[in-house]
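Researcher: I need the complex structure. Ligand is protoporphyrin IX containing FE. Inputs:
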Amino acid sequence: MTLDPHAFLSKLEERISLTSEDKAILNSYADWGREIAPEMAVSFYAYLGSDPEMNAILNSTEERIHRLRDTFIEWFSEMFTGIDHWGKSYAERRWRIGLIHVRVGIGPQHVVPAMAAVVCEVRKRLKADEKPEALQEALSRICMIDLAFIEQAYIEVSEAAVLKETGWTESLFKRLIASGAA
Ligand code: HEM
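Model: Output:
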């Protein structure tokens, strides 16, 4: 895989227009983010658990759901701090989260609606707590960046696996996909 997580993060920040003002407002609400994270985790896993396929994945081992609750809280809080202010560590952490989902067999059809559920739940909470609209916009942007990481991991891993197994070149692989889509 050739993806450089930090370069990918920079590209996404530009594409999504995550500005230094967005980062500043996220940082200034880091305590609030940490405070509501456990509640967000509860609604997130209730949402995933309501889908039979996702529920089966979540409960495939006894301890998984507990581990996930903690990792979700950490992930949610990190959106406010940017870990190292959205530097190399943030990018590598997001890339690793993407790879883990690919390994567990969770595809775009699961992740996209799940992130939409997060954005929707956060929006409700922002409204209830009368937080500024700028915070909502910044949070939506960072959620989309994190989503792009998970989605990109899926395609990067699939492509790398096919190229390794078949010896095809990248351009042949891309041509086959394009002609398959036609
Ligand atoms: C908004 C989208 C999502 C976010 C932000 C998210 C967040 C995370 C994080 C932070 C981890 C831990 C990664 C690590 O160990 O380093 C993780 C792992 C995992 N997630 Fe997600 N997730 C999302 C969507 C989903 C969906 C839709 C499912 C479907 C069931 C899912 C199931 C799992 C599983 C099974 C693991 C591995 C758990 C283990 O350690 O055994 N996630 N997720």
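Model: Summary of the prediction. The domain at 5-155 is CATH 1.10.490.10 (Globin-like).
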